[in-house]
Input
Amino acid sequence: GLDCTVYMVRCSYDQKPYRGIMIRAYGAEVYPSPSQQTRFGRKVLAEDPQCPGSLGVAISEAIEDAAGHEDTKYSLGSVLNHVLLHQTICGLEVQKQLELVDEKPDILTGCVGGGSNFAGLILPFIPLKMAGERLRFVGVEPKACPTLTRGEYRYDFGDVAQQTPLLKMHTLGHGYFPPPIHAGGLRYHGEAPIVSHLVQHGLAEAQAYYQNEVFEAARLFLQTEGFLPAPETSHAIKGAIEAAKEAEPGTVIVFLYSGHGLLDLAAYDNYLKGKLTDYAYPEENIRSSLKACPEVCEFP
Output
């Protein structure tokens, strides 16, 4: 009985039309972001009518919409620490599955956007690593949005309009607009504070890959296992494959299969036709984006 409004990043809205159809079939409204529905959306479009959008812009629009209606609440599905804790059901289930087959993991890998997927997998295993067990936690992100591998660890806003509280995280700058890669769920400028903290202190690590090599890994997985992974999920698969190439015999590698790719067939079509572009964001553009981050006095 709840009404629902979704602000969907414009490039994903255009790339994946069947997702919009499904949302509307459920009875919700969905708008490509930036949209004409909010003041901030209109501002972004006035500056760039062809703006592909970003998760940061969509979050800004959703917050503005919710804040302007007393009967409306905003739900964020990633980044914030309480969301990560909810997602630990993933890691708890993995622990139970490994227990059933009498195995212990050596390497756990997952895709990283806002951090809820990866953190949900690894957080239940963190106490084991801190107790001395030799575990590797590998977060895999796109080179087009290399938050953990090329961003800075500092305070920044979680959205482009600067409406969220400041978060201590790895960031490319809240004004960063990632290229329109097909792994839309990984196109976020920042990273969950917990995940950022773990990487900053060496308890977890990060890798980044181009989208063509990620889709190559996805196709191999499809041909060998019979499951079509989402572009985001395919990053975890790529990480697992690379880990397996370097691992000693008997190494147990776990990756989180976060979603299917049945609504991403257009992306697979582009890959098979050689039309996917490998975007790598230039260092100077990242530095320019980071200049807009707020200066915060941090105590030692």
